[in-house]
Design brief:
Length: 148
């Protein structure tokens, strides 16, 4: 009887241990949910991607290697720069908000820190914009995009 109980305890322990998440990042990669990150001036932000063909192509582009982009301030509401490639467009009239990542003209990346309404494609959004304006500062900025 003691052997049966011991075997049961061992099996139950193995089952509980095997199903307990040890490290969330490894689970996300295992499920194919890599996370896009944006680094700027010592800050790192997570980007939640949209569900469209443009965002999928953007993810594929960034997945190949880290992308370092130079973004210039435009109109006191966005930072904009060449993406280095052309992506499929899914333009629609959008009113942006702080943290929106926008594809403009199919080959420009815009990082919004204020509102604007125009026809373009939303690629994603910075999940937590608490320090975004502080991070991007005034004028031009260099950002790095990568998958983790």
């Amino acid at each position: 009887m003691k052997r049966i109980i011991l075997v049961f305890v061992i099996i139950a322990g193995l089952f509980l241990f095997a199903n307990k998440p040890i490290h969330q990042k490894s689970i996300e990669k295992e499920w194919g949910r890599e996370i896009m990150k944006l680094e700027v001036n010592g800050y790192t932000f997570e980007i939640e991607l949209e569900n469209n063909t443009s965002a999928k192509a953007f993810k594929e582009y960034v997945s190949k290697e880290k992308r370092v982009l130079s973004l210039d301030d435009y109109g006191n509401f966005e930072k904009v720069g060449d993406l280095g490639t052309s992506l499929p467009r899914n333009d629609e009239t959008i009113t942006t908000k702080e943290g929106d990542i926008i594809l403009y003209l199919g080959n420009k990346l815009c990082l919004y820190y204020n509102q604007n309404t125009w026809d373009f494609t939303k690629l994603g959004h910075v999940k937590d914009t608490t320090h975004l304006k502080e991070a991007i500062g005034e004028g031009s900025v260099t950002v790095t995009l990568y998958m983790e």
